Amino acid sequence: MTAATTAGIPGYTGDAQPYGGGDTYADYRAPEAGFPFAHLPDLADRRLGATVIAANDEFFAERENLLKPGRPEFDPTAFAHKGKVMDGWETRRRRGPSAEHPHPAPGDHDWALVRLGAPGVIRGLLVDTAHFRGNYPQAVSVEATAVPGTPSPEELSAADVKWTTLVPRTAVGGHAANGFAVTEERRFTHLRVRQFPDGGIARLRVYGEVVPDPAWLTALGTFDLLALENGGRAEDASDRFFSPPVHTVLPGRSQKMDEGWETRRRRDDGHDWLSYALAAQGRIRAVEIDTACYKGNSAGWASLAGRDGGSGDSGEWTELLPRTRLQPDTVHRFLLTDAPAVTHVRLDIFPDGGVARLRLHGSLTDAGARHLTARYAELG
Ligand SMILES: NC(=O)NC(NC(N)=O)C(=O)[O-]
């Protein structure tokens, strides 16, 4: 069944049909228009260092599957000692206390604790029950908290930890993309996911905006002003055909071609581009343009421009790096002298192709540091 929920996001409930062969996603329930928050980074991305630090039960399938990249898969022939092999987090069936009371109590549930890879403001959640057709949870809830440092599961479970409810106990559907809009304007570090009374969830995605710790960035002094983990954002692009722009600001280097940003082959006389917001106003001193793994399809040339104060069509673009030849599968390094203070940059590539990473090493201006500090305080 499908019921309308908040923000026009469909709410799914009820079983999916038993798998009857063929395309395992043929009857998967998901909104055709996608989710209004799915363009945002996943704060629970393993590539940012997120992890499922604990769960009370993972009898059929391990909790870590919740954050695996990529789509959950289903092999109808795969069985192991514990039962059906499932690509998700799945707990055993709960039983009541006696023959007279064989069913779980109303409040019985399983839980998992998730540390976000980059703390931030959460705008939306996906509780994906793909392939859990008759063994998905009847309902789920999601809570969030902000605990500094690296708390243990025991510390997170302490009575004095304040949890904020993002999703109250809500019925979900089997083999469905159960999405929830979140309106809590707070910076969070950890989530607690509960499934009532038990069952399986394939993936958890936590879409939002990274809010870095200004004290850490100030202590660093010089850092990558564009890195997602530092609060940088890929805002818009001319093309996302093969892989998304956010890849260019992820940690580490690409190991495969699809781990960067690659546009389709242009058949006109135009060129592709990507626009970004820095963590805050800063001065860039060193630029890295990495075309790792793009050997026959690297961007041919690239230029970089910056503006101060606002994205969109306001403000003047200032050239930071003129149009420069790029080599395939190469880290290019450029030093900038006396670059102006900017809040946004634009990477233009000619005519098309791939860029794996863009790194903009520099420092926050005083105004940039003040902006970050104020936002950090405002978000509690
Ligand atoms: N057919 C099943 O999937 N059974 C059980 N689950 C697994 N993974 O075996 C269960 O109890 O939900």
Automatic annotation (TrEMBL):
Reaction catalysed by this enzyme: allantoate + H2O = (S)-ureidoglycolate + urea
Gene3D superfamilies for the chain: Galactose-binding domain-like
EC number annotated for this UniProt entry: 3.5.3.4
Electron transport found in the keyword field: no
The keyword Hydrolase appears for this protein: yes
Name of the protein in its database record: Probable allantoicase
Classification via Pfam families: Allantoicase (PF03561)
Domain Allantoicase: 49-210, 231-363
Keywords on record: Hydrolase, Purine metabolism
Pathway named in the protein's UniProt entry: Nitrogen metabolism; (S)-allantoin degradation; (S)-ureidoglycolate from allantoate (aminidohydrolase route): step 1/1
Gene: alc
Species this protein is from: Streptomyces axinellae
InterPro entries: Allantoicase, Allantoicase_dom, Galactose-bd-like_sf
Recorded family membership: Belongs to the allantoicase family.
Annotated region described as Disordered, given as residue ranges: 1-20
Domain of life of the source: Bacteria
